[in-house]
Amino acid sequence: MLTSVTGVFLVACIVELLRRRKLKEKYAFLWVFTGLVIIPLGFFPSALDSVADAVGVASGVSLILFLGVAFLFVICLQLSWEVGRLEEESRTLSEEVALLRIDVRELHERAPENPGRTAGAAPGSRT
After folding, report:
1. pTM (two decimals)
2. CA distances, 66 to each of 16, 30, 79, 88, 103 (Å)
3. What is the domain partition of the chain in residue ranges?
């Protein structure tokens, strides 16, 4: 019964995080699916042992442990890929900003002084 309550609590938390826009939909699907798989295990614990026997695992607990570790491995792999992609994107954006700063500095150095403009005034503003 505790397993089912945990699954319901997990699904409710995911739905609430989605509602508050604290969790992206692309991640929520996986977590909701996990919660929906956990819920029936509390109501039918013998089904887990039947599945374990069918796949050749000694007990349902061992199967859950293996699947949990495999699940966490996949999550870590996906998040590592995402972090690598974001690091590359951040580096590219930093390089583009640096190049734009150089261009702006060069334009300011080449621009003739405007005698009607006061220091610190925005371009195009009248003083």
Report:
1. 0.66
2. 29, 18, 20, 33, 56
3. 1-43, 60-111
